[in-house]
């Protein structure tokens, strides 16, 4: 580890590393192995004080600041920045009586799920419990219970954030209300969140999991899902994905090395009601594997079965206002079993329900009024790697006639300023810009989803 004489850096308890340090590469690595971060300096923060010192140093030396916990949201190499790594700040505290969790910046959803479960409580985590809490939540946070309870950001009560002046602020609806509104949806554009408190839900179990069909059933399943999904009650969330699976021995034998259609389902009512709701989809085609059952909430990863190992990927997301037959046909033409698509996954997700309702404490979360989301991902390896970005963009272009006016920033993928600007409606976008100019007038923070100037 490099020794520094700078006053702020010398006060940092965690490691401060330059590219010359042997531990630098591991410290900066993110979940997307296609992107190799190249900051000028990385600070392994252990406290809010460490984060504040790193921000002051960056501002004083003319560098920008970025933040990373698990690195799931990494879309940029962060050249020349001071990167604050928060993975050591992983504390989780559950208040059973208040039904709240208070977590530090580097905590993952798996830590919160495991801490809350003994109390019969659950957080509004996403499809993968290995994702960091803070980055997911500040981008809105769309998970398997979202149609019943809304976005994760809707349940935030307060947070601690280090702003561009190097000051740590405790923020809630009454203290810095504009900042409280903006950070819940505005990602890391306003500062570095070092602690966050949010409500938990009285959920101990669910009926759900996945049903896998052969790829030749894709048209029948997607068209059937298009008609079926909007009839579901808010207690049910669902998505359907076209997957090209590797010959991985960790996968169930019927799925290894196959192209499949994966129906995802999560129901918070009784198993009998869940079976009744799911019956029309089960009847569409023979299942290769049906793994839907009643499960403890701690098994929520079984719904999406997201990969847990870093890999090089390119992703792209779009939201839809409507999903007519023609939109499904357009999707299948680009990525169906006969399309020769290089994409590893293309997911259609039902929105609506509580997602579409304004929370008691309004926030800057975008995409609230979309009806569906489409998210595509391809692995940048092997002979089809170079075709992945073009096909992902072509899919988004093919679905543009049915696009919603706003998008989901956590599922956007790499984007220029113009595309980022379109994720919010004009009123919220203008308000975000005004608040960003107030709290970060020099544009110190280099966020994964940067607000346009």
TrEMBL record:
GO MF annotation terms: FAD binding; oxidoreductase activity
FAD-binding PCMH-type domain boundaries: 35-203
Cofactors that this protein relies on: FAD
Cross-referenced InterPro entries: FAD-bd_PCMH, FAD-bd_PCMH-like_sf, FAD-bd_PCMH_sub1, FAD-bd_PCMH_sub2, FAD-linked_Oxidoreductase, Oxid_FAD_bind_N, Oxy_OxRdtase_FAD_BS
Entry keyword set: FAD, Flavoprotein, Oxidoreductase
The keyword Flavoprotein is annotated on this UniProt entry: yes
Tree of life domain: Bacteria
Family designation: Belongs to the oxygen-dependent FAD-linked oxidoreductase family.
Protein name (Swiss-Prot/TrEMBL): FAD linked oxidase domain protein
Biological classification of the source: Bacteria, Bacillati, Actinomycetota, Actinomycetes, Pseudonocardiales
């Amino acid at each position: 580890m490099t020794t520094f004489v700078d006053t702020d850096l010398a006060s940092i308890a965690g490691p401060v590393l330059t590219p010359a340090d042997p531990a630098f590469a591991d410290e900066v690595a993110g979940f997307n192995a296609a992107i190799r971060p190249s900051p000028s300096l990385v600070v392994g923060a252990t406290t809010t004080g460490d984060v504040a010192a790193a921000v002051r140093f960056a501002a004083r030396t003319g560098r920008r600041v970025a933040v990373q916990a698990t690195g799931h949201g990494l879309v940029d190499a962060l050249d020349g920045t001071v990167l604050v790594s928060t993975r050591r700040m992983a504390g989780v505290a559950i208040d059973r009586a208040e039904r709240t969790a208070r977590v530090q910046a580097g905590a993952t959803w798996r830590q919160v799920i495991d801490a809350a479960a003994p109390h019969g409580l659950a957080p509004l985590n996403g499809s993968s419990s290995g994702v960091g809490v803070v980055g997911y939540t500040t981008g809105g946070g769309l998970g398997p219970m979202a149609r019943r309870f809304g976005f994760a950001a809707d349940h935030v009560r307060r947070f601690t954030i280090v702003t561009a002046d190097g000051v740590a602020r405790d923020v809630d609806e009454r203290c810095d209300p504009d900042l409280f509104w903006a950070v819940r949806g505005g990602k890391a554009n306003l500062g570095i969140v070092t602690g966050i408190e949010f409500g938990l839900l009285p959920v101990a179990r669910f009926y759900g999991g996945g049903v896998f069909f052969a790829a030749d059933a894709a048209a029948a399943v997607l068209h059937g899902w298009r008609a079926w999904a909007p009839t579901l009650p808010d207690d049910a969330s669902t998505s359907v994905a076209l997957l090209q699976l590797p010959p991985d021995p960790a996968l169930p034998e019927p799925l290894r090395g196959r192209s499949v259609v994966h129906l995802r389902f999560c129901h918070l009512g009784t198993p009998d009601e869940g079976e009744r709701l799911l019956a029309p989809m089960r009847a569409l085609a023979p299942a290769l594997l049906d793994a839907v059952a009643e499960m403890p909430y701690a098994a929520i990863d079984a719904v999406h079965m997201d990969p847990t190992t870093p890999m090089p990927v390119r992703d792209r997301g779009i939201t839809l206002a409507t999903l007519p037959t023609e939109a499904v046909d357009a999707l299948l033409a680009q990525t169906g079993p006969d399309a020769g698509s290089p994409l590893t996954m293309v997911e259609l997700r039902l929105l609506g329900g509580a997602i579409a309702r304004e929370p008691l404490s309004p926030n800057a979360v975008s995409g609230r009024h979309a009806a569906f989301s489409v998210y595509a991902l391809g692995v940048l390896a092997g002979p089809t790697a170079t075709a992945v970005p073009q096909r992902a963009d072509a899919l988004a272009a093919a679905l543009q006639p049915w696009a919603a006016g706003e998008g989901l920033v956590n599922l956007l993928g790499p984007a220029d300023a113009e595309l980022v600007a379109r994720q919010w409606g004009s009123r919220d976008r203008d308000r975000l810009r005004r608040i960003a100019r107030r709290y970060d007038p020099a544009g110190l923070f280099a966020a994964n989803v940067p607000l346009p100037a």
